[in-house]
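Here is a typical sample entry:
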Amino acid sequence: MSISDLQKWSHLCDVPVERIDSDVGLLIGINVPKAMEPWDIVSSSENGPFAVKKTLLGWVVNGPLGLSPTDEASNRFVKANHIDVQSVPSLEEQMRNQFDHDFNEGTIDDVPQPSREDRQFIDIMTESASIQNGHYVINLPFKSKEAVMPNNIKQAEQRLASLARRLDKDEHFRCEYTKFMDKVIGEGYARKVPLEEIHKDDGHVWYLPHHGVYHPRKHKLRVVFDCAARYRGTSLNDQLLQGPNLTNTLVGTLIRFRQEEIAIMGDIDSMFHQVHVPPQDANFLRFLWWEHGDTRQQASEYQMVVHLFGATSSPSCANFALRKTAHDCKGHFNDEVINTVLKNFYVDDCLKSLKTVNKAKSLVKDLKDVLHRGGFHIAKWISNSREVMSSLPVDERAKEVKDLDLDQDTLPIERALGVQWCIESDIFRFKIVIKDQPLTRRGILSMVSSVYDPLGFLAPFVLTAKVILQELCKLQLGWDDQVPNGFQDQWCLWIKDLQKLSDFKVDRCIKPPGFGDIQSAQLHHFADASETGYGTVSYLRMKNAEGKTHCTFVMGKSRVSPLKQTTIPRLELTAATVAIRTDKMLKDELDISINQTIFWKDSMAVLRYIRNTTARFHKFVANRLALIHEGSDPDDWRYVNTKLNHADFASRGLPADSFLQRKQWIEAPEFLWEEEDSWPEAPSEISKEVIGEDPEVKKVAVRTIISTTPTSESVVDKLINRHSSWHVLKRSVAWILKIRRELRRKVQHKRKGGSDHNEQPTGYHSHHDSDKLASISAQDLDDAENAILSYIQHQSFAVEIDTLRKGRSSVMRTSYIRKLDPVLDNGLLRVGGRLSKSCMPGDSKHPVILPKNHHVSIMIIRQIHHELQHSGRNHMMARLRERYWLVNASSAVR
């Protein structure tokens, strides 16, 4: 099959299939349907073939390629063009990258700067946003204002036909699907396409295929409009800007949810659908559907008039509208209400904690009013305060509490952003459903990934399972190979322990009941590392007005050590950088004023590194020390004995029994509950400087130059420094050398017994000699230049010249000109390398090496600059390197 075969069929002209001369390497059976699952289809036409556009393995063309469009299809066969998918990262590669990814601690702030597309998105939002009929109307953020889309109604019809077959087979699915679509149309989120626009085909029409997806936990059907469906090389999502991430962080939202005693949680109804699109953009959101789900009728054309679930731009559009609602209401509501909209929403979920019941009641009321101004309706409220719940209308409560007797019935367990919240006792708990997974790497990874713990309550326990996965990764077993017996025993023991976590509980609120306002707060970060892993744990130490102290767990992190073997000091230093990053994140997310931050380490080597101000470290250590010094002061770091360092659990792991009984992970160290004068003190050895034998300290090469030149400025140096022109200096030196040669000639002549009585007095010469001394030749200038360059090279590169004169092939490793592969040519150091065999001039192939800051180098640069009449830096650099190679010339040439 070739391109010429496809050219016979107009509908397949755009399918980019190339000829691959290769044997069959893979046969796909029906037991791997995912490999052949079609992502899109180019329909058949005129009895011709159809194309499955993009399966996992590439393009598949099916049909009678050998016939012309007018021939009858007598023979049917299949041809497939295999596309290499090695560019898609394998699960193995992703797993290894994950083990090594966390080890790369490069910067404190990971927040990316907005891209040009992000700025374009914000401009579109700002310019188009307006309130109409009580809702924000915002344009679809197209990448190009001249976006033109092919008419893909055939694709929508094919997908609808496939949907009809499923609806006819499954009556329950039909009822759920029809109910959802009737709600979408009945609520006004979609409408029928006006008759006068049905046949519109100006490149601004697009049809969205749709399908149903069941929520895995709620078992609730959601209809998803497939904005990623591709037709003729494009999709709606391809044409839309995704926009910046305007959503608050999940971890930050949960941390703020723990700050006060009264907790409330609500949900915005159909958040995306509350933001409308202008009429001209609705044509890009068309879809086909039967009235009341009756597949026997002719499908009608509808169009969405709101931003919909499935578009890549919808999350950013909805969050922009939500945040704009808050900004537009500033001055009309108090700051706490506005800040709640800006900081306490994660997409459509609101999680807020307050000090008193009255504040909670007032906030709920004001929050509903604020959101109503932007067209949003928040409901499904739930709270740990029965009084707050009683103040809410029944229809605005969460369905779990609508039928409860708030005076007697027990409040249920609800999920707060995925974390199980036992509302009655106001605690977080963990009840993990253990699924029957095969004893393979794939099964183990699936089970470990199902443990949802964003705040790191279970970090030491989960580390044990991560270590098993890493060891299996080292064995290079297949993903579906049975794991060895020894690992099976370890895994079964971990699964057994996992069931015990149903007894593990953590208080939601970081303050005990009746603690009152916080007068002072400290963050304490403990960091540790071992051969197994490394991690941190952070505690908040608070004091109230009465002077009472309370310490609480805030966050924990535990990571396996990288696959590549690394020294313990480096792992300890990396753990310290994790603590720095955690500190910055917590200070950004907590709505509590932090008076002091203290970091605790049991590694004296790392503490010496942090406090050292003189040693130069290798790149790995130096980069992480720079990050530590950027985020903290050396005095913030203190020593703690390993037995008191709770981060030791994060670096080594804990079995379930120890984790549950000792509670040394969740509960802060005992000394933090006491006054500061009883805290651990550092040993005296810690104040000592880093010893020179430490392998992380750079060895400084000291170059000793033996020279007969006096320490004071020599006559030659005075001569050079008194000149400001390279050409004039060369003429001066040329005259000196010329006169010196003549004087030497006379001395040698006398030593050979020559008579002087016939010679003229000094200053008088023969006509020939007079001509020679009257002017400077080009050769004289070249000799003078070589002499000057040789002199300054012996000043700057004496050791290198001596090394090469001894017959060695290269200079020492510590030399900063080693990368130039210097060679000695007639007493001058020149750049070596492979250009020796080129046809370039000799000086260009091997330019003379010069030091950057020498006065001669500056004069040469000035001379070339004058000759080129200030023609620019690049031109000047090119001319300079025709004869000379200045070390770090880029910074010298300006």
